[in-house]
Amino acid sequence: MHELETRELRYFVAVAEELHFGRAAERLGIAQPPLSRAVRQLERRLGVRLLDRDRRGVALTEAGGVLLREARAALDAVAAAARRTRRAGDPKRPLVLVTKAGASHELLRGLLGALAEEPGAAPVEVLLCEVGEQAGLLRDGRADVALMHRPYDDLAGFDTEDLYVEGQIALLPAGHPLASRERLTLAEVSDVPDLPIARWPRLDGTYPDGPGPEVHTQSQLAQLVALGRTLLVIPASSRAWQWPGHVAVPVVDAPDVTTVLAWPPKSHSPALASLVRAASCLRPPVTGRHD
């Protein structure tokens, strides 16, 4: 069997996502007949039916669902390879370090300061993102290295260097009765009828069940906490972005969070090596627990 081509994968993904040949053809900027022929040819080559077609429309078969997942990953990998190749060909390019906005602020400052001491260190561009976006930016080649957090972030497949271990806090609206406490437990913050815990998306983009509001940006969360609509348990270092209307209270039995430096495997650029050396020169990982 001949190898699959990126063009036919793009065609199939468009049809599988639109579930309509006309819309997919318009999205691709081609006529519908050649698109239909390309998908039928792909099915013949693979020896399976990828799409069920009837008067009601188009639906993915089980095999089509598998190819959709694999094709997306393959196209992402091709795009990432192109980005990394172009970036590697630019000797003046900065090293792009991505981190969640507001997280690990002091650690990031220390890391950049340590890197400045490295002889001939490359310039660093800091790319700020929202929760859970670092892995995607690393995988698609838009970032070279990331500050991420175990166990919350998707570290699968990356090389890592542990930097810092800390406890967690509850971020509460000022004026709430719990805000006057010196410390809290997970049980106490998980059962507050008038202040449900905010829900972040999982790694697959879905939200856990619960009464709390769905959030996906720091600014959404900050305003909802200040308005007295939610609370959140987060790493202690994230208090750097808290508003005057917030209060941070240690959660004594919350699991530790480890900040790590992460990068794609087999990345061997001198700039990345300098950053990893600078990270290893920082003080040993420190536990920020609130006993």
TrEMBL record:
PROSITE patterns: HTH_LYSR. Residues 4-61 form the HTH lysR-type domain. The keyword ATP-binding does not apply. Keywords: DNA-binding, Transcription, Transcription regulation. SUPFAM superfamilies: Periplasmic binding protein-like II, Winged helix' DNA-binding domain. InterPro entries: LysR_HTH_N, LysR_subst-bd, WH-like_DNA-bd_sf, WH_DNA-bd_sf. PANTHER family: HCA OPERON TRANSCRIPTIONAL ACTIVATOR HCAR (PTHR30346:SF0), TRANSCRIPTIONAL DUAL REGULATOR HCAR-RELATED (PTHR30346). Belongs to the LysR transcriptional regulatory family. This is LysR family transcriptional regulator. It comes from Streptomyces albiaxialis.
